[in-house]
Amino acid sequence: MTATAHALIGGAIAASISNPSIGLPLAALSHPIADMVPHWDFGWGWKKKTKFKLFVQSSFDLIFGLTLAFLLFGRSTEPVYLISAIFMSEVWDLMQMPYLLWGWKFPFSTFYKFQHDINGKAKLPWGIVTQAVTVGGLVFALRFVH
Ligand SMILES: [Zn+2]
Question: Which of 14, 54, 60, 130 has the CB geometry, 3.0–4.6 Å to 85, for a possible disulfide?
Answer without folding.
Answer: 14
